[in-house]
Write a structure and sequence with these properties.
It is a single chain. By secondary structure, this protein is α+β, with helices and mostly antiparallel strands. Helices cover 30% and strands 20% of the residues. The strands form three sheets. Strands 2-3-11-8-13-6-5-4 form an eight-stranded mixed beta sheet. Strands 1-10-9-12-7 form a five-stranded mixed beta sheet, with no helix packed on it. Strands 14-15 form a two-stranded antiparallel ribbon. β9 (239-242) and β10 form a beta hairpin. The chain is globular, with a radius of gyration of 19 Å. The chain starts with 6 loop residues before the first helix and ends with a helix.
Length: 338
């Protein structure tokens, strides 16, 4: 196999290095501000209100890249059940979870403190389990080990995909694409599908670490997919966002968790696809402080990322074309311990 790097690949590599350099500059503590609004948008009567909802989504996304959606159609009982299954999985003995190891470069399986953010250079203080549909062979607990786990997650993943495609459909129309543009690029019926449902368990925070500086549950980073849906639990805070236009101020805004709202953010892939009209902004999960909840933090994230054979092509020519597979592979390689 040739080691020659094509001009397009070289440009893509340069883009990835730029992203890593941006992250590496975000390691400082910074300050906090509540002056920015993380907007909450109702998706009720979606088809009837589609134009209005699209306007609201676009306004929020182009402002700080983050927003929350309510009335989203995923029943709270289903959300609660998914969190129950997540907690049960992470409660399994380590020797059981080790039977389902993360497939390197595949975003499938269980990992333990292996994700290293360039911003801090240390592993995130968490464990996670990734579900990427075509890559799950041998990675499911048996019914004896955890009854109902597989069926629950598959159903929940599909509901997340549907919601993500509704939101991305609004962005497609705003960008001048047809309504199904991003849906075709995130096709779960093919082997090239690489969107991921991720269960996350941030460990309870030890008292001895509460006064240590520069300790994070997850260091500052941008997501490298197209769109993220994040389910949080009320009272389990720590998520903060820093809009790129104000990065020099290092003033981070808390994103308050609630059970009924899904926090959404634009990822690098969609930022690239939109010629930077939709910003992918830095966020992090800070450590708790004295007097705050210090127990475990559970979240569930759905990362909509284009199929491996989908072409991410900058409409205005700002960035060279790259496949979804090559793009994600570059970013995973840079963010996970070898």
């Amino acid at each position: 196999m040739s080691n020659t790097t094509t001009p397009a690949t070289a440009s893509a590599d340069s883009y990835a290095m730029t992203e890593l350099n941006r992250e590496a500059q975000m390691g400082g503590m910074g300050t906090e501000t509540t002056d920015r609004e993380v907007r909450r948008i109702s998706l009720a009567d979606f088809e009837q209100r589609r134009a209005q909802i699209a306007d609201e989504l676009w306004s929020a996304a182009t402002d700080i890249g983050f927003f929350q959606v309510v009335d989203h159609g995923i029943d709270m009982a289903e959300v609660n059940h998914a969190f129950e299954m997540s907690a049960k999985f992470f409660e399994l003995p380590r020797e059981v979870k080790e039977q389902f190891p993360l497939k390197k470069g595949q975003n499938a399986g269980w990992e333990f403190s292996s994700q290293v953010r360039p911003s801090v250079g240390t592993p995130d203080q968490k464990e996670s389990y990734q579900l990427t549909l075509p890559r799950m062979e041998g990675l499911w607990p048996t019914e004896e080990e955890l009854a109902g786990f597989q069926a629950t997650l598959l159903d929940f993943e599909h509901k997340c995909w549907k919601l993500a495609m509704d939101i991305l459909g609004c962005f497609a129309e705003k960008l001048g694409f047809d309504r199904e543009f991003f849906t075709r690029a995130h096709d779960p019926s093919t082997e090239t599908y690489q969107s991921t449902l991720r269960l996350l368990h941030y460990y309870a925070f030890p008292d001895a670490m509460l006064d240590e500086p520069n300790v994070w549950r997850a260091g500052a980073h941008t997501d490298f997919n197209a769109l993220t849906l994040l389910f949080q639990r009320a009272g389990q805070g720590g998520l903060q966002v820093l809009p790129g236009a104000e990065a020099s101020t290092q003033a981070w805004t808390p994103v308050e968790p609630s059970d009924e709202a899904i926090t959404c953010n634009i990822g690098d892939m969609l930022m690239r696809w939109s010629d930077d009209k939709l910003p992918s902004n830095f966020h992090r999960v800070r450590a708790p402080r004295r007097g705050e909840y210090t127990g475990p933090r559970y979240t569930i994230a759905y990362f909509a990322q284009a199929n491996t054979d989908a072409l991410i092509e900058s409409a205005a020519g700002k960035y060279p074309a790259i496949t979804g597979g090559d793009y994600i592979a570059q970013r995973i390689a840079a963010n996970f311990a070898k």
